[in-house]
Structures are given as C-alpha cells and as structure tokens.
Specification:
Layout: H1 2-28, H2 37-45, H3 56-80, H4 84-114
C-alpha cells in the first residue's frame, strides 16, 4: 500500500513539474521578441551583466568550460534518442541546464564584445569561427 502511495506521489510531482515547465516555456516568450524559444527562456535564467567584472582571460576560460559542458549535454540529449521516452528524459534531465549554458555563452560573448576582447575559441560566435 505504501509503495502505491509513493508511486502516486511521484507521478503527481512529475505531472506538476511538467505543467509548470510547459507554462514557463509557453509564457517565457511573451515579453521578448526575436531568437529561439531557448534564447528567450535563457534570458530569464541569466542575470544581465553577470560577467561585468571578468577580464578577457576569465571570460575566455568561463566560455570554454560552458562550451565543453554544452557539447557534453548535446551528446547526452542525442544519446537519449528521439523516441518519446528519450525526449522526455532529455527535457527533464538536460534541457534546463543546456538552456542556461546557451544564455551564459551569449552573455559571455556580449561582455567580451563590450570589453573589446578578441573573439577566439568559445567566445567566437559560430559564424565567426573559421572553417576547418
């Protein structure tokens, strides 16, 4: 009896979490324009001027760490698969951190541009990176 109660409790918690996440993603773009949904939600997760006191070297180091973790999360999301179960696990486990990392990278690039840092490595926007 207790195990059934715990399963029901977990199911309700999961349902509430999904509803709140869905509402947050749906309403996250109401006050902003342009960019993907991930970009718009990411703006809510990252404080403006979060990296204002960082030097160019610190910005580059933080961007490299964030880019490496972003790549790792993208690999994990791809590994989770495209089935309904895999996408659900991907969203629940990885999507919020991935969205926050994308927003942090955008803020790091903005801070680097304001400080006139050379856009190298992870600070370079994908369009700025040379072809290999």
């Amino acid at each position: 009896m207790m195990a059934m109660y715990d399963n029901l409790k977990n199911w309700r918690l999961l349902t509430r979490t999904l509803v709140v996440a869905g509402l947050g993603l749906s309403l996250g773009g109401c006050g902003t324009s342009g960019g993907s949904t991930e970009d718009r939600v990411g703006r809510l997760l990252t404080a403006p001027d979060k990296f204002i006191f960082f030097t160019c070297g610190q910005l580059e180091g933080r961007a490299a760490t964030a880019a490496a973790r972003q790549k790792q999360l993208e690999q994990l999301m791809a590994k989770a698969g495209t089935s309904l179960d895999g996408r659900l696990i991907s969203v629940l486990a990885y999507q919020s951190e991935h969205t926050e990392l994308v927003a942090d990278l955008n803020e790091l690039r903005r801070a680097a541009a304001e400080k006139n840092c050379k856009p190298t490595g992870a600070l370079a926007r994908p369009a700025d990176k040379p072809a290999r």
